[in-house]
Specification:
- The complex is a heterodimer of chains A (about 425) and B (about 190).
- With about 425 residues, chain A is of the alpha/beta class.
- Chain A has two domains: about 5-60 and about 90-110, no CATH class; about 140-155 and about 185-420, Rossmann fold, CATH 3.40.50.
- Chain A has helices spanning about 5-15, 20-25, 30-65, 85-90, 95-110, 115-120, 140-155, 170-175, 200-210, 225-240, 245-250, 260-265, 275-280, 310-315, 320-325, 350-360, 375-390, 405-410; strands at about 120-125, 125-130, 190-195, 215-220, 250-255, 300-305, 370-375, 395, 415-420.
- In chain A, the strands form two sheets. Chain A has a seven-stranded mixed sheet, sandwiched between helices. In chain A, strands 1-2 form a two-stranded antiparallel sheet.
- In chain A, strand 3, helix 9 (about 200-210) and strand 4 (about 215-220) form a beta-alpha-beta unit.
- Chain A starts with 5 loop residues before the first helix and ends with a strand.
- The relative contact order of chain A is 0.09.
- Chain B has helices at about 1-10, 15-25, 30-35, 90-110, 115-145, 145-160, 165-175, 185-189; strands spanning about 50-55, 70-75, 80-85.
- Among the domains of chain B are: about 45-115, Double Stranded RNA Binding Domain (2-Layer Sandwich); about 125-170, no CATH class.
- A three-stranded antiparallel sheet of chain B has the order 1-2-3, covered by helices on one side.
- With about 190 residues, chain B is mainly α.
- The longest helix of chain B has 29 residues, at about 115-145.
- The chains are: A alpha/beta (about 425), B mainly alpha (about 190).
- Chains A and B meet through helix 3, helix 4, helix 6, helix 7 and helix 18 of A and helix 1, strand 1 and helix 4 of B.
Amino acid sequence: MPRLANSTILKAYRQSPLLPLLLRECRTLDSARNELRWLRQHAIDIAQERRERDYEAHVAQHYASHSEPRPSPDDPAPTPSSPHRTRRIARARPTGWRRTLRTLCHARSRGTPLQYLLGDQPFGDLTILCRKGVLIPRNDTESFTYAAAEQILTRFPPPSPSNAVDKSPIATATPTTPTPAHPNNGPLRILDLCTGTGCIALLLHDLLAPSYPSLKILGVDINPLAIQLSRRNLHHNTALGWLSTRAPAELEFRLGDVLSTPSSFSGSAHNIAALETILPQIPEFLDPTPLQGDSGVKVDIIISNPPYISREAFVDGTTERSVRVFEPVGALVPPELADSEVVAVGCRGEDVFYARIAGMAGRVGARMVLFECGDYGQGERVMELFRQVEGRWEVRIWEDAMGTEGGEAGRRERACLVVAKRAEG
Amino acid sequence: MFRALHLAHCTNPFTYLSYINLSRRSFSISALSLADKPLPPRLKFQDADLTISYLKGTGPGGQKINKTNSAVQIIHKPTGIVVKSQATRSRSQNEKYARQILADKVEQLLNGDNSRAAIKADRARKKKASKMKKARRKYRDLEKGQEGATEELDNVELMGEMDESASEFLEHRRGGETDVVPDTHGQKQ
């Protein structure tokens, strides 16, 4: 990381004494100024909340000590003070916000991610709550989720009335002939593996709910904190009205281990159910017409943003310090696998999730698999994986229509989205 | 719920401005008549004319880094106008703002003084001028005699929470030390 110029630090200090603190993590004056603005607003919000709480406590104490009957909350004038006075209290900026802001800036200068300090991250039109111990949703993932929704709309054309809505240029350019999605009129079944905050599942529901009359999205994660947070996110966004009222019924988050199979379960150290034991528990995912030797479960789409950083890349400087220190390692680097039952021998350590999910996709009848991969090299290895598993898959790396700056070398280092479609017949 | 309200009002610069304008209108008659005339509609763009980019850097991305920058840049290809927005943390919000700014800029290029942005700026200028004029008149009358001063003070007290600072200012003003025209609306915020 290049050293900050003294002139930059001085310039920042002249604008605000707190800016040099933020510069340590932001590195550019522009982004430091933005972060200071957001942190400042957050500090004022916190102070305001604190004041409202104190005021409530004060009022409660007042009525307790004076033994008067407390007026009901919908009473127009609950306090004896003059209207002028109460209005001035509500308008003035709460005290103590400067101290809060300074604390926040010091935490940020030590590398704490901004999203953990502010408590949320915008994701599409949703607001995803964040907390320490769960990976923060990334900008790249946001773009990929939009792309995934577009791909799903092309591959599984929604029933006729809303069909006209989908007029994107990509939709007409795809060579595969779309087949009707639901001969049995059941919901479109989507499985989001390693869901974390639940961001992909929630945004997919937001994007797909207007087109499909019925959906079922299951998010699975091994981390109990993540499952707790994803459920909170579901209720948070539904309460704010960002998600449709269908969401609580159509989205589900379950604790589960993607890498272990029921047979390897007995040997595993923790007590978390394997993916195969969870899927039949969801009524919508049961296959109405199970074939002999089939798993008895039916899923249409699998989407996943699993841990994909290799052990080497985690420590060699390509992974940002703030990510390495403050975000959960389990969400970034896949675990070392001892048994070769789950994943074929010769698979690289960072690819185990892809190998496991690709191997499972055919068995649960998935017709489309979408993966976020760390770089183009990994994306190509994943494409190779699909050639080895059963079924004919048509795999490609999704290209951003907006084009990229920075040339071929810079592009290959970036994250990418791999789209695999099962060839019909 | 409190946070939600704040999101809806304060982080969106456009709603915030219009909210202030609304609260100001009640005080001035001239502003009312100005606002009654509808503004010309905002320009709509063909998506093919725009290049929207999210300004990502090169090098590793995805889980390896955690950028908070969500700036959106839009290029209007026919005119070559470039706008950038990083007002909020949300990419979709930034895109909305960038589109609005771009619409104003392109329209100004096309329509000049008859454009939406030009009309808005003109109204704001007129409103400010009339406000200054009124304030000047008010304090000129005040200086003329005690009679005028008490009358004004009554008016000020009607305005509720402004009473203290305004009377303080008046006392200060009677000392005849300063020539500053008070921006009463500014103090209210």
